[in-house]
Amino acid sequence: MSADDPDTKLVARIGRGDDAAVRLLVNAKLPRLLALARRMLGDAAEAEDVAQEAFVRAWRQASRWRPGAARFDTWLHTVTLNLCRDRLRRRRERTMPELPEQADPSPSADTTMDETARGRAVQSAIAALPERQREAILLVHYQELSNIAAADVMEISVDALESLLARGRRSLRATFAARDMQDD
């Protein structure tokens, strides 16, 4: 499988201390890692912190990286996803003195949803999914990972991933069907 990994040579260069290779890796991977972290966390600043930590871990691991069962990109997505999970867990553990105000994500009856509002509605519906369904949807549909790569990142079988995707899609369809009925 390592012969299929396009990042093998780049990671080896990083392991030898090649600064140009680090810049190439960051330029190639940063947009997708940021997008994943932003969608998972809903916070751009936290997403940047997660992406930075993922790259620090990649840099530290580079000299010891041995191509094997997983592609480097899969490993990097797994690191990013785990860092997001850690932050989400810490959020749940924190107690807040008062509940935060939440804006009503549904559009008013007399206005039509523009592209930005629709995007917010989709983001809100995805955020409401159970964690594993949300992760599967984000990895496959937003990160454009194959089912095999997404299953590797989530450390589950492809069948389990496909089941999560099916349940997540059903839930999203139901959410939007209910929203459409509410708008009528």
Description:
- The protein is mainly α.
- The chain has two domains: 95 residues, RNA polymerase sigma factor, region 2, helix turn helix motif (Rna Polymerase Sigma Factor, Chain: A), CATH 1.10.1740; 77 residues, Arc Repressor Mutant, subunit A, CATH 1.10.10.
- It contains eight helices and no strands.
- Helix 2 packs across helix 4 and helix 3 crosses helix 4.
- The protein is globular and about 60 Å long.
- About 4% of the residues have low confidence.
What labels would you give this structure?
single chain; 184 residues; mainly alpha; Rna Polymerase Sigma Factor, Chain: A; Arc Repressor Mutant, subunit A; 2 domains; 8 helices; 0% strand
Compact summary:
The chain is mainly α and 184 residues long.
Could you give the order of the helices and strands?
A: HHHHHHHH
* Helix-strand makeup class: mainly alpha
Amino- and carboxy-terminal Cα gap: 52 Å
Radius of gyration: 19 Å
So what's the overall shape? globular
Query: Would you tell me which CATH topology of the largest domain applies?
Result: Rna Polymerase Sigma Factor, Chain: A
Q: Number of helix segments?
A: 8
Helix content: over 70%
The CATH C-level name of the largest domain is Mainly Alpha
By DSSP, the count of extended strands is 0
Give the DSSP E fraction (strand runs of 2 or more residues).
under 5%
Mean pLDDT, nearest integer?
Answer: 84
Output the CATH homologous superfamily of the largest domain: RNA polymerase sigma factor, region 2, helix turn helix motif
- Given as residue ranges, the uncertain stretches (5+ residues, pLDDT < 50) are 107-113
Biggest pleated-sheet summary: none
- What is the domain total for the residues? 2
Proper CATH architecture of the largest domain: Orthogonal Bundle
